[in-house]
Amino acid sequence: MELRQLRCFHQVYQDKSFQQAARHLYISQQAVSYLIKNLEDELGVELFIRHNTGVQPTEYGDFFAQETRHLLTRLDSITYLIQRKSNSISGRVTIGFLLGHLGPLSRLTVSPLHTFQQLYPEIELRWISGSPRQCEEKVLAEKLDFAFSAFPTQADLFQCVKLYDFKWYVIMRPDHPLAGKKYLTVEDFSGQKLIMPKDEQHDRQQIMRALSSSQQPAFVQVQNSFFDLVYQNILDDDALMICAEPHVAVFNPYLVTHIPFHSDLLRSQIFLLKKRGIIPSPAAALAEDYLLKKWGFKDILGRQESCQEIIPAGNSRDWDKSPAR
């Protein structure tokens, strides 16, 4: 059994697709199929069931994944320990995350942060969560080395690389008059009570500009979306709440429902943001490289783009210029 077979197996097991695994491993799909078939022949069992839309692990596949996962983790640890020993780097790195986009329900999971701390104890790693405005301000003030946040409003001051898209939903009572719709648009907010966290003034302004004065919703302002207060407004006062995709799963599906929200008003992509013209410290560069690899963004490593060169989908560059209708 070869190490490359083991890595290939775990990538397929994670992606449930030969095609996706090939893209993440930077090899051809035929090579992935060859490595998995040789591994299955060596073990004498079938590890995956192939079908038109991907693959599913067999009972043997699940068992093999469980029993060998620690081997890859240990090998990665040894690699980084040797690198650290040969070229020790120290310092402090502080990272910002858009609220709700760091955790088990997001593509940006917490575990790589803790693993990095264990592998590089000489580097003091800190992270915070905040609104898009807070992330922008702290990056510009050099209180954050970099941030994973929405497209910045002051694009000329940042370097940014797009990581991924996410969707928006509207949370409401299951018996709300709008609950039967397939999706909602900003016009559906006309005359409704709409919960907006205190630190989301930009999104609130966008909604206000999109509607006439007679269509304005009644905004319910809450501090950082405390769930007891949010539930009270949704369940007792029939309010609506706009919610980013990673947040939906934290709401009790027996108490509320969620409807897709279709609009290009709200920022719906996560970017890696850095202050333009700043050379990162060796510790910050190491942390950025490590985290991007662990979160599956190896294809953007080393890219440096001015935000002015990017027009992100669903993130109009003319947010603050669009007149009220």
Query: Total strand count, please?
Result: 12
What is the terminal separation in angstroms? 65 Å
CATH superfamily of the largest domain: Periplasmic binding protein-like II
Q: Give the helix proportion (percent range).
A: 25-40%
Mean pLDDT: 84
Number of structurally distinct domains: 3
As a percent range, the share of strand residues is 15-25%
Instruction: Give the C-alpha Rg.
Output: 23 Å
Top-tier CATH class of the largest domain: Alpha Beta
Low-confidence stretches: 314-325
Structural class: alpha/beta
Q: Could you say what the CATH topology of the largest domain is called?
A: D-Maltodextrin-Binding Protein, domain 2
User: What's the arrangement of strands in the largest beta sheet?
Assistant: 4-3-5-12-6
The helix count comes to 9
Question: Which sheet architecture does the biggest sheet show?
Answer: 5 strands, mixed
The SSE order reads: HHHEEHEHEHEEEEHEHEEEH
Shape: globular
Using the 3D structure, state the CATH architecture of the largest domain: 3-Layer(aba) Sandwich
Quick rundown:
This protein has nine helices and twelve strands.
Using brief descriptors, characterize the structure shown.
alpha/beta, five-stranded mixed β-sheet, disordered C terminus, globular, 325 residues, D-Maltodextrin-Binding Protein, domain 2, Arc Repressor Mutant, subunit A
